[in-house]
Amino acid sequence: MDALILQFLNGLDKGSAYALIALGLTLIFGTLGVVNFAHGAMFMIGAFCAVAMQSMLNISKVTLDPTKLDFLGNPAQIRTPMVESLFGPELGGSIINWSVPLSILLAIPVMLALGFIMERGLIKHFYKRPHADQILVTFGLAIVLQEIIKYFYGANPIPTPAPDAFRGSIDFGVLIGYAQNTIIYPAWRLVYFTFSAVIIAAVFAFLQFTTFGMVVRAGMADRETVGLLGINIDKRFTIMFGIAAAVAGMAGAMYAPINSPNYHMGMDFLVLSFVVVVVGGMGSLPGAVLAGFLLGVVESFASMNEVKSLIPGIDQIIIYLIAIIILLTRPRGLMGRKGVMEE
Amino acid sequence: MSKFEINRRGLIKSGAAIGAGLALPTIFTRNAYAYVNEPKGATVTLGFNVPQSGPYADEGADELRAFQLAVEHLNGEGDGGMIGTFSSKMLKGNGILGKKVAYVSGDTQTKSDAARASAKSMIEKDGAIMISGGSSSGVAVAVQGLCQEAGVIFMAGLTHSNDTTGKDKKANGFRHFFNAYMSAAALGPVLKSLYGTDRSAYHLTADYTWGWTQEASMIAATEALGWKTVNKVLTPLAATDFSSYIAPVLNSGADVLVLNHYGGNMVNSLTQAVQFGLRDKQVNGKNFEIVVPLYSELMAKGAGKNIAGIVGSQNWDWKLEDEGTKSFVKSFGEKYGFPPSQAAQTCYAQTLLYADAVERAGTFDPCGVVEALEGFEFDGLGNGKTLYRKEDHQCFKDVLVVRGAENPQDEFHLVDIVEVTPVAQVTYEPENEMFAGGNLGKCNSGA
User: Fold this and answer.
1) Is B423 inside any structural domain?
2) Which of A43, B25, B78, B212 is least surrounded by Cβ atoms within 10 Å, i.e. has the fewest?
3) Which ipTM value was assigned to this complex?
4) Residue B110 in contact with residue B55, Cβ under 8 Å?
5) Is A97's Cβ below 8 Å from some Cβ in B?
6) Which of these three, B314, B334, B358, is where a domain ends?
7) Is the pTM of this model over 0.90?
8) What are the tens digits of pLDDT across the range B131-179?
9) How far is CA B244 from CA A157, A189, A195, B236, B307, in A?
10) Best of B230, B233, B244, B271 to disrupt the A interface by mutation (most A CBs within 10 Å)?
11) CB contact A120 to B (< 8 Å)
């Protein structure tokens, strides 16, 4: 039973990332009708916002220490972070230690701006083009973005640790009445799941309870009529593109301690996230979230040794197998709307 | 008016005469085109096939730096690096056989088909007479096969699978880097002294040629110590989140996790294993331990503090104290500003070894080079006394057992050397079952 609970937690955690990316993809598709293959790159750039924040906070004053030698026998360089010089070693050290959560403050404006530039500069020119063209141009954009990141940060993963307070694991079993040391789970993964739940709830609340959200929902349902009412729906959709990019960016930034960021991490998530969107139903926000968590949990259970011993390799195909079954039995996905991508 | 008539007998006679006529000049000029890409001018071209894009691009960049440095030293530029410490004194800094060394580079993309295409282009279009480099066993095996067919020498870069000099060995291919068997043989005694003989190991293994041979080698070595193998689980090469594979380890009864992973796989699986609290866990009354059989400095950097205390093996480390290492680190460090990786060292050494073999053979003919390299014993290239074994073209030398640094002195100090395992301990018979099934075949000069 403890193994099942552990895999369930893993599934929720994986599902959090899938759901956050798929939510952004669906927002863009539902509002602008664009199939955005560059969305994985938004996730990756978000993770690199965490790397950039860590680097900025570690900008150091360099002094030479003649008592220590470097690998060539020259006086060693001693680096003192400017933050520590400004705020003292204790507070400065704490700020550096919390660089990943702090990177959210960087990720939001960067991703909003990037989303805005992408939409106005490139993607708007492809609204009336076939989906195949949109896929090609956004996929090309994703490759360009990842090569830019590789140029500046290299191809190797960059360690971006969580704050010390969340670096270890917690005894989750004790919290739910199990014996000690039976269900140990990484603290940061629980933080990530909570963070995802808050972001997903915030996006839904924004769409559900604000006038802006109401107009966007109306535009998603019938763009033309909303336009005829004199509302500049394009402007709102552009903002939604930025919000979707920001959601992916925040998801990426907070994911950095789980998988050390590398330039390719967006592509690793992209295909899975598209499967999530298709399973959830193109254009359905609740469908994207539901399918994200569902596929995350199923994928985790499929990785169990007991399951793999029955069906070897099932962990690698389970998501696609489910997608096939869902599309055969419910062609519009779990919560898809009639008419979306069916013209 | 005469009439031209042709009959069967006449045709055969004429054909024989024309054939003999055409063949005659080649009898006297055979040496002019004795082997593929024979250098005719004042330069000789080497082909460096390294990953310049893809996940191992940084490792590839380091290999390329080492190749460039080796070419400079061969041409008499710079401080000469390990040419001065190399036991063979054939290299004089005047190129190879008096020809200035030029090079071309290609991008393997860490994909076998791309690597083959790139090597083919360097051989056919650029006239490369030797191909070297690479950072993956799949690529090494593929390019080695191509070089054998094309008739050029392949001096492998970073490739650690037993298969490269085992079932996939080729007469034209040579590996300086160590292999999975050697890692396990070196790690065995150290693991015994550190963790004892009563241990239960759980293996997570990358699902491809290198992972399989690494897992088999580690299981053989640890079971010989008395360890039990609790489970061995293959993980997809493309996996990034290993939580589903690590979670079952927690309550499996295992007290050691062996991560037969490399590159990004290693960074992520190790980081996540540490996050799951495995290193703080007590199982069977013992501290839970993690072992990473193959270390790479660049990957260790990616794993950050998570490598502290984790044991693994390396082919070479810049902190070794021998004269060859010191010279190489000085040359490389002064040129690039940081110490070289083991991938760089093996590529540099392979270039010098090739050049030296050509000098000793007195020819660029691949068959002459093969003969010169087979059974060649040397020293002074950073790994101590080394033998290029004739039977499988594998280098036999000391292997390093290392441990992730607990208190790194600087950003370059990633691992501490635990032990330099003597070559005798990692040597195996050519017929060893882990290397069975292959055949070197005959050298091919492409003539």
Assistant:
1) no
2) B25
3) 0.84
4) yes
5) no
6) B314
7) no
8) 999 988 999 999 999 999 999 999 999 999 999 999 999 999 999 999 9
9) 21, 13, 21, 12, 21
10) B244
11) no
